[in-house]
Amino acid sequence: MRAVARAVADGALPGRVWLYSNYHCNLACSYCLTESAPKVLKRELTAQHMLEVATEASALGFTALGVTGGEPFLLPHMPETIARLANVLPVVVLTNGTLFNTARLERMRPLADLPVQIQISLDSADPIVNDTMRGPENWRKVIEAIPSLIRRGIRVRIATTGEEIDDDDLARLCSLHRRLGVSDEDHVVRPIVQRGRAADNGMGVFAEAGDLPPELTITADGAFWSPFGPTVHGGTLDTDLLVTRATAPLSMPASALLRLVMGRPAGSDAKLHIR
Amino acid sequence: MSRVDLLDARRAPLLARPFYEGGDPGPIVAAIAHVPEILEAGMPFLSAVFGPSALPVRLKEMVVLRTSALLECRYCIESHSVVARGSGLSRDEVLALRGNKSLAGHFTDAAERALLDWVDAVAGETGPVPEKVSVAFRAHFAEPDLVEVTLLAASTMMLNRFCTALELPSAPITVARLAEEELL
Lengths: 275, 184
Prior knowledge:
The complex is a heterodimer of chains A (275) and B (184). In chain A, 32% of the residues lie in helices and 17% in strands. Chain A has 275 residues and is of the alpha/beta class. Chain A has a single domain, classed as TIM Barrel, CATH 3.20.20.70. In chain A, the strands form two sheets. Chain A has a nine-stranded mixed β-sheet, with helices on one face. A two-stranded antiparallel sheet of chain A has the order 9-10. In chain A, helix 3 links the parallel strand 2 and strand 3 (91-95). The mean pLDDT of chain A is 94. With 184 residues, chain B is mostly helical. Chain B is globular, with a radius of gyration of 17 Å. Classes of the chains: A alpha/beta (275), B mainly alpha (184).
């Protein structure tokens, strides 16, 4: 068994490889780690590059893929690319859920038969609270998109990101996602990480490598320790969680990440349990 | 002003962090840190080439400073003028290596003259080293010395161009030391 496969099997290395498909987004959320917005540099991975990463990740012994951004569905090829990726490894795609018009939803139908989860951000049961952080009309679009995807047989997860979610807020949110057809198992709550725009707005928790699971993350700018690594602050890419500038062959950043993980003192592990 | 954003310890990529553990690693590391896999692979090589080895440190600094002078690398000339002084070379010898005084007048040892002629042929010219220079060098140095001196000169040339192209800044402590010795 190869080193990466062994580390994944032993639990020393998470099995998921993340792909930053792009950095641009139709939203500009107040806590966005990557300062994503409509007019930022796109910095995309091509569909072919993503497929090559997936193929090599599988060969190395990784067991799953994640696609994030930016907003992945701003890339016109994304529904078909997800299908191709999911034919290699199971995929979770992180999206703001605002771009699922009827035409795109129809193109996503084939994903129902593949190991694909669409993870949509929804931060509050209250539209005003949600939209204050995520932008006008976000709540309404998400609430429409979730059942539309589920009706087409596509598995949907909901991710709630927040600073302080009290029990009442959480209860209302859980009630809402159950009504929308999303089970408790498919609802994740995670803290805001104090990087990117969140740092400027004084939001979130400080996190460094030891706080974050070492999930190999491939971007147009290099390979990072975690999907919370390739953050942008003041328009400049953060480099503190950069592993290697080169991303191909994938074995190069994978072996570098493995050396970093194996070089950590015993007992060092992710403290924040951020997924 | 450097042409490249020099990464400080706070922004050092994971593979680069060991190079910052002793404090400011200097602008060459802070620049190469942008490509941490090259830093990780390259620094052990550079340390082996420039660090303690079978060649006396005096000779090594002569090679580095002379090469840097021939390639007119301000950063390397300034840094290695200080290192050369710390390695026992006199102020006049430093100035001679930099081309400000006569080499022949300050380096009279036959082996050192042969070494400097070899370096001048490697770093100051293109094409093969003239036979006469090679024969003189081999009269004083063994085969491994030939390899090490040439590799040291060639590595210095690489860094000379890197530091010059990126306009890396000399450390304030280096500038202060040079001012003290009137070597600026």
